[in-house]
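Please, does this match?
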Amino acid sequence: MNNAAIAANWLASLKGKTALLDIDYHAGNGTQDIFYNSADALTISIHADPAHHYPSFVGYADETGDGAGRGFHHNFPLPAHTGDTEYLRTLDDAIALVRSFNPSTLVVSAGMDIYDGDPLGDFHVSADGIGEIGRRIARLDLPTVICQEGGYNNDALGENTVALLSAFAS
């Protein structure tokens, strides 16, 4: 089951244009597979470079959709040791795509495994950086569903999740 894809599909059927933004450390291979041939949702994944990290078979920048879905999928693979500055710059590019698509709703696959110190990743995104990710996404001012995805540093998972979600509480 892919909760984010289920939510995006349901929202698209009810509300029209829907965007799905995946900020998990790993490429959104399930979401990509589900929507790759479909124009039902704009899908964007910011993740570790699949040439060096799982899943190595999907998540490359040249994978942009096929058939009716051509141009509706965007991968942003990032190098090892990506920190706040680089991640936020890439997020701004992803947000620009969401804005130009002009969806009525947004689904976020929120992976806290982008955090510096997560045992399954090698990014260096700080808790403050995760908070800024939340603020930038919240500024889209769209009805948003947030699905918790990865995050394996149990000592920091709660703090990081609160940092992301706090932007949506005000």
In short: The radius of gyration is 15 Å. The mean pLDDT is 96. Helices lie at 3-15, 29-35, 84-101, 127-138, 154-169. The chain has one domain: 14-169.
